[in-house]
Amino acid sequence: MDEFQIETAQNVGINQNVASIGDRMLGYLIDSAIILLYTICVILLLTTLNLDMGDSWAIYLLVSLPAFLYYVLLETFTNGKTVGKMLMKTRVVKLDGSKPSFSNYFVRWILRIIDVALTSGGVAAFTILIKGNGQRIGDIAAGTTVISEKQLLTIHDTLIKDIPLDYVPTYSQVTMLNDSDMQTIKNLYDDAIRNGNHNIIVNLHHRLLKIMTIETSEKPVDFVAKVIKDYNYYTQNM
Question: Are 12 and 219 in contact (CB under 8 A)?
């Protein structure tokens, strides 16, 4: 899974997991199936009602609007997700990790005409592969990308981490914490890094400074990472 780093307004570097092109294509197929099913149901309903052509045309135009506006409406009101994105655990975000505005969603939606509709997704796939940060033309214009929220659990998700033999700890105050505290901190930190939630890291930073009664000039993301390493150092060498 590709990553790209963003720098937030709080000067926190966050690695975002870019949604794979496979996940995006599957999400697109799911959304397309939903739109197609809705459209078929609308046609069958109007056929059953036996309306005349004048009334039928106006009603069809009205009831087809949800299908036409499917992407922009769902992404706007469900935090950057459509049904396909929810199932594939992907989400639209701005390049700085923040939530897009309606104008961002609208721009990427209107440019689907070029990215997807007119080229059967060929331009979108080509641009995503070339850019490397999950952007199609609509995303480039809107300043957005699509990230993956899948949690890839590995041995690195456990509390224990290998510490170099020559490692020198910085904060002895970490011994005030216990294993349960540190596992919670590490889980929150790892989730924040994966999902680009820099506010969580900033809150952890403030909370740890208060508990440990210390001050530091380190960036929040570096400070929390060092606290985790220092705790591992002390617990492994006691």
Answer: yes
